[in-house]
Amino acid sequence: MGPVWTSTDPSGTGDYPARMRWDSLFDDLEGQLEQELTAEGDELRAEEERLRIGRLALRDRICALLAARPLDPLRLRLVTGEQLSVRALTVGRDWLSGETGEGGRSGVIVPLTAVAALVLRPDVVALSLEPGQGVERALPARLGLPFVLRDLARRRVPVSIQLAAGSVEGTIDRVGRDTLDLAVHDLDLPRRSNAVRAVEVLALPAVLAVRLRG
Description:
Layout: H1 16-54, H2 58-68, E1 74-78, E2 83-91, E3 95-100, E4 106-111, E5 115-119, H3 138-142, H4 145-154, E6 158-163, E7 166-175, E8 179-184, E9 198-203, E10 209-212
Antiparallel strand pairs: 1-2, 1-5, 2-3, 3-4, 4-10, 6-7, 6-10, 7-8, 8-9
């Protein structure tokens, strides 16, 4: 005769099957609650991320790329359709500066209002969405384009200013709220009265890029 299997009640109260059912029920409820809390947390984080991305501006995307890939040049499409490759060094409040041209020997300042698109490889799009505030230095981040142009005027730096209709060369004499006065002269000559052919009062919103010469 084979062995006879019997269930025992370790509590000795006679309600062991009922307690097993309650324990199983509470385990199920606990598992469901944990799943719901996890799903709720995931949904909340996803919504927060959607809101964060919804607040990103072009400048934020540029800062994120510079934080992740500081040595990679930025490919910018200007509002004219022209593409410009810039190894950005500084990002201001409404401008960026860096080096362009073969060997990175030419300095350039680009107003962010002149940028129609940031041209990205598919593998770096996610990097442009990451927080990139660490790339910012406190002072340049607060400076607007007029301040930077006034510094060029103070130092008498010869420049070539790119407009939609072409470029003009010379030295910035002064900068107003939304204009700059450019003394037009050959860049191989210093800015002297007898070398100045004209003074052009340029609207700052029309400036696409300021290339530093000399």
